[in-house]
Amino acid sequence: MARDSDGGAAKDRGEVSTATASSANQEQRRRIRNSVERRAIVGLAVATIALLLGIFYYPVATVFIDSVLVEGRWTGRVFVSILQDPFYLGEPARLLAGEPAGAVIEAFLSPDRRLGVIGFTAYQAALSTVASVALGLPAAYLLARYEFPGRRTLRSLTILPFVLPSIMVGVGFVATFGRNGTLNAVLGALGLGQVDLLFTLEAVVIAHAFYNAPLVARVTTAAWESVDASAVETARSLGASPLRAFRDVVAPQLYPSVLMGAALTFVFTFSTFPIVLALGGFQLATVEVFVYRLIRDLEYAEAAALALIELGISLGLLYAYLRYEAKHTVQSRGIRPLPRRPLRPPSLSVRELLPRMGLTVYAVVALAVFVAPIASMVLASLSGPEGLTLANYQFLIDRQTTGASFQVQPWDAVRNSLLFGVASLAVALPMGVVVAVLTTRDYRGRKVVDAVAMAPLAVSGIVVGLGLLRGLVFGVEVGGSRIAVGGGLAIVAAHAVAGYPFVVRTVAPGLESIDHTLVESARALGAPRARALLDIELPLVWPAVVAGAAFAFAISIGEFSATVVLASGTNQFTMPIAIERFIGRRLGPATAMGVVLLVVTSASFLLIDRLGGDDVGF
Amino acid sequence: MDRTSTPAVELDGVTRRYGETTAVGDLSLSIQDGEFFTLVGPSGCGKTTTLRLIAGFEDPTQGGIRFGGESVTGVPPEDRDVGVVFQNYALFPHMSVGENVGYGLSFTDPPGGGSDEARVRELLELVDLGEMADRDPDTLSGGQQQRVAMARALAPGPDVLLLDEPMSALDAKLRERLRVQVREIQQELGITTIYVTHDQEEALAVSDHVAVMHDGTPEQVAPPRTIYREPATEFVATFVGDNNVLSGEVTAVRSTDDADDNGDGSEQSIADVTVDDATFSVALNGDSDPTAAVSSGDRLTFCVRPERLAVDADRNALTATVTSAEFLGETTRVHLDWEGRELLLRTEDPPTGTVTVGFAPTDAHIVDRQP
């Protein structure tokens, strides 16, 4: 019976001797193959975890050690000095410095209070969250409750911000809101005065809304679509007005998703970096921008401590949110979703017209926020002093052929981006698939594996970049010999770390939804676990794997935070870095480079969308 | 069947717990080579868990499982030489019918030599789907999918075939036709088969032995006829078919050769059982039965099948009121109210109003005795 069991082995040998020699050979080959396949998943898991330790946990630990090991001595001094410095923490810092509470509270309530860098960062994150929710909810209402041509396309576009490089969006906003931007051109044409939104908090908040409102819209739409129409109908039949039914039945099912969108927005915008760098400059610096500045000034200990304080706040917020979510999840089974209304009003009554008029106003605002930056960037890339021109693209080509070696070579940037994209994909894809497999199994400690594997989503690229720089790039002593990896390899590692969680997030829901009896059937038919994965599960989630790959590639192409840390002073710059270097002096070439980036990421997006982006677990 | 040979599958005190809940508790079963063995019971009785334990998808918390006398503890499902058919068939949607059936042959040679292709063809012909090899599983009907799943499970020549409610997604007529086909294939191949179903009628129709499961333990393991005629417990009596269950105190135990007490005039032990104000004569079970040693003062629970209740009989007569009737075609199931108890009567000629029914003492079967 039990062919390969330990108990059956002796009996097998007896049987084999009576069989022909060739079939005995075959049997042996099969047994070797089976035993390799049996250990394959464990082997891959170990390799993945080792890699994760090497390119994520070790660098992050390096950063931590940097902040507490100063000049060979362990100290909490750096943390303490940051927390007691009103420059960072605002008035509350004085409390930590031991000043009397009364005076601090008085100062905090006075109009010229200081928020400090951390306080300001939280303040702009809160404003951005409000703006994102305000801009996202009408979109959710439109997407969940109305039927119109292009609705599906619009719905899938809500995933686009995940792949749009933030530095490119920054360029778009400069092209829109800058002194010579499209907004001023429109205002001028209308005979109105000029505005200069650049380097203001408003521009940063709007750019953050551009990024995060689609996320709010996405999660809220999903919740709205899973509201069961019969629950609303029951409420109505019991005497509730439409508004009352919405308040009592629909809204409670939307709150958790709105809160999730808001919580994620706050965390994302709290650690914002490229947007502020492009739109705010150092006068609107957030924590992350300061960390970057400290790294540039070679103040590694202070940079590390500040980055860790930021990470602590982000993780604390995420944890609080997850705790809340665990307690307040509404289990809704959308057996029959609410019917969608046509966008064209069926009658001219106030009840039909009013919400549609509201949506029209919203559409104008949405066009200005979501479409204008991209359109302005494309327009700016094609315009010069004498109208339409390809001069900006010509500049890129000329710079390539005539530029000095210290200048940014455009083609090198494109080539590096593609190279790092492909290389980091080669790392992120298998990692992501293995982690997806590990996190969709039932075993003790699965939650720990999930948390360990998903942590990179919460840690900013600056920290990873800094850790890789201080560790692997500067070199590590291992058993007397010094190991150092090149900047390029470190960039690939950082991109892989940034990208693989997206592979996990696309592949895991697919694996989760596979009927477990398919795997069990395969195993009963003789397939070892790894073979069942290869033969049954992976082919069935193949579209999700490709979508995850496109995600990882797009993330790598657009990655800025870690790359800017690792690429400084090297020639390993990528397209986003090139844009950042152009942006201050030459907006034209920056927009032209932005368009190139847009084309590459749009292609990735189309791939994601075609192949199951709807299942992304966000 | 040779009951002395090593059982094909043996469960020895198997317990499976999930946290606090016990899905299967101290279960011992012995399934002979080549028999069609059915686990039947209501949902949650542990029958599917038992099957999954045998297949190796779950590990017992306690106890051991042996195949042909050898322990399979720790042996993964792929090495157990079992074929499994699930309720939803679990056909691989990205493979053709032929590829599905041939999948198991990537891990073992076709039994009896020959090529993989020939084996696939052979199995598809066995289930009457010879022309379907290139079809997509999605394009098949439920019954055809079920047969593909069956062919796929049988292709590598497993020692044991495990069927987990393979018919429950099909309509009644098809289910009846397929269960005959499954039984024929099983007998043609002589393969040990363990079948899980919640449908007691299906269990009785196809099995050599039936284990009636309740709360993770078997209440009775016996051939179908014994299960139906001599249920071991009240649960078995009411789960398998309709039954009338009555309990009362024994007022007398007597031996009789009175031809009126039982049709054939042989000697029979009879207990007089008082239920409320009525007294019934109930034939005692055989000596081997633990409920047989009855004495006065015991509390007896016995059952009488609805089709054994006779209208206007004078033996063990009781007068009841008809409350409702369900016309089932061949017979009618009549619901009676007898002093607040609901009784069932099966008859071709349903009475109305007040009716007197009775039963022969040998038509009663004792399921429980409390001294």
Automatic annotation (TrEMBL), chain A:
Q: Where is the composition biased (Basic and acidic residues)?
A: 1-15
Q: Quick one: a GO biological-process term for this protein?
A: transmembrane transport
Task: Specify whether Transport is a keyword of the entry.
Answer: yes
Which residue spans traverse the membrane? 40-60, 122-144, 156-177, 189-211, 254-280, 300-322, 359-382, 418-439, 451-473, 540-566, 587-608
In which compartments does the protein localize? Answer: Cell inner membrane; Cell membrane
The record gives the membrane topology as: Multi-pass membrane protein
- Compositionally skewed regions (Polar residues) per UniProt: 17-26
> A Pfam family in this protein?
BPD_transp_1
Annotated region described as Disordered, given as residue ranges = 1-30
Q: Which UniProt keywords apply?
A: Cell inner membrane, Cell membrane, Membrane, Transmembrane, Transmembrane helix, Transport
Note the CDD domains from the entry. Answer: TM_PBP2
Offer a single GO CC term for the protein. Answer: plasma membrane
**Where does the record place the ABC transmembrane type-1 domain?**
118-319, 414-608
Which family is annotated?
Belongs to the binding-protein-dependent transport system permease family.
Which protein, by its recorded name, is this? Sulfate transport system permease
Q: State the organism of origin.
A: Haloarcula japonica (strain ATCC 49778 / DSM 6131 / JCM 7785 / NBRC 101032 / NCIMB 13157 / TR-1)
From TrEMBL, chain B:
Protein name listed in UniProt: Molybdate/tungstate import ATP-binding protein WtpC
The UniProt entry's sequence similarity note says: Belongs to the ABC transporter superfamily. Sulfate/tungstate importer (TC 3.A.1.6) family.
Alphabetically, the GO molecular function entries are: ABC-type tungstate transporter activity; ATP binding; ATP hydrolysis activity
Q: So what does this thing catalyse?
A: tungstate(in) + ATP + H2O = tungstate(out) + ADP + phosphate + H(+)
- What's any one GO cellular component for it? ATP-binding cassette (ABC) transporter complex
Coiled-coil intervals: none
Task: Check the record and name the InterPro entries matching this protein.
Answer: AAA+_ATPase, ABC_SmlMolc_Importer, ABC_transporter-like_ATP-bd, ABC_transporter-like_CS, Mo/tungstate-bd_C_term_dom, NA-bd_OB-fold, P-loop_NTPase, Transp-assoc_OB_typ2
Task: Give the ABC transporter domain ranges.
Answer: 9-240
- Enumerate the PROSITE patterns for this protein: ABC_TRANSPORTER_1, ABC_TRANSPORTER_2
Entry EC no(s): 7.3.2.6
Question: Where does the UniProt annotation place the signal sequence?
Answer: none
